[in-house]
Amino acid sequence: MTSTKTRVEKIATCIVPVADLDKAIEFYVEKLGFEKRIDVPFGGDHRWVEVAPGDAETTIALAPPREGDPVGNRETGISLYTKDIDAYHAQLKADGVDVDDEVSRMGGPVPPLLWFRDPEGNTLMVVGD
What is the pLDDT of residues 38-87, one digit of tens each? Predict the structure, then answer.
């Protein structure tokens, strides 16, 4: 008999702390083609914004950092997926995104992948077929 210790059903939101929220929204919506799902005030002068591609359930929250925490130049640990990684790589380059020069192909069980950075230097990974 298998037992589980969690009642978690899905990953809801990954959080990327950003200093310039409007610039981050422009990048994720205009450059990456995500849609803005939520944009609401919270905690006084702050806003809570969530973006996501297409029909994805999991969103990326673009939010101010906790007081005293640094922002930018983070490895987010976020991995995105595309069926055509070469076309997406070319699109990112054409759109002026800070993206790796080439798609990495390690072979074996590791899918083709690339990394790109948002305007604050936060790194996201893209994997493809």
Answer: 999 988 889 999 999 999 999 999 999 988 998 999 999 999 999 999 99
User: What distances in angstroms separate CA 96 from CA 116, 119, 128, one per listed residue?
Assistant: 11, 11, 20
102-121 pLDDT, tens digit per residue, is 999 999 899 999 999 999 99
Tokens of 39: 């944009």
User: Quick check: 118 and 124 in contact, CB under 8 A?
Assistant: yes
Query: What's 13-128's CATH class?
Result: alpha beta
- The answer to whether the Cα torsion of 24, 30, 34, 40 is positive or negative is positive
Task: Output the pTM of the full model.
Answer: 0.88
In the chain, what are the domain boundaries? 13-128
H or E element that contains 93: helix 85-94
